[in-house]
Amino acid sequence: MKVRDVEWSDFPDLLDIYYHLYDERAQGDPIGITLFSERPSHADEIDWFARAYARFERGVDVWSVAESDARVVGNCTIQRLAPVAGSEQAHIGILGILVHHSHRGQGVGTALLTHALAAARRRFEVVRLSVFSINTGARRLYERFGFVTTGHSPRAVKRDGAYLDEEEMTLVFESGPTGAANA
Questions:
Q1: All domains in the chain, ordered by first residue
Q2: What pLDDT does residue 179 have?
Q3: CA distance linking residue 94 with residue 76, whole number of Å
């Protein structure tokens, strides 16, 4: 497995991973990401990817992908909370991670976090994420990287008539974006 920065040509694989989540949800699998009620159109996803990729290219966001057998099998983004220069929250990044169902539990998440957080240390002072409270495996992974639980949101997601709570987790790079972090 190889972990690297995203490339424009990764779009088809990333779209496949994302669209498969809708199939998993329909099968009742406990996926750990919130989705729209209906799968977005291909055109909507192209628009989203173009905007997200432009932010990455400008150095606003961090975007790492994991590749196995010449296919992208996961991705991790850290998006600047307030991408406007001079914002009082421009030092905060919001982490999102997604691994193809066939590669979960194989170290892909660990590799993605290692790569993405190394880049984030150069750009952010704080990284936040939200994770479903029932997703204990993901929570343990984040804790290994130094994230701590800083909040709890009851009934954060309503899926098929059932509610899911979320935990807010935060990683603070003690030395800021220019030095070595204590994470």
A1: 2-172 (3.40.630.30)
A2: 43
A3: 10
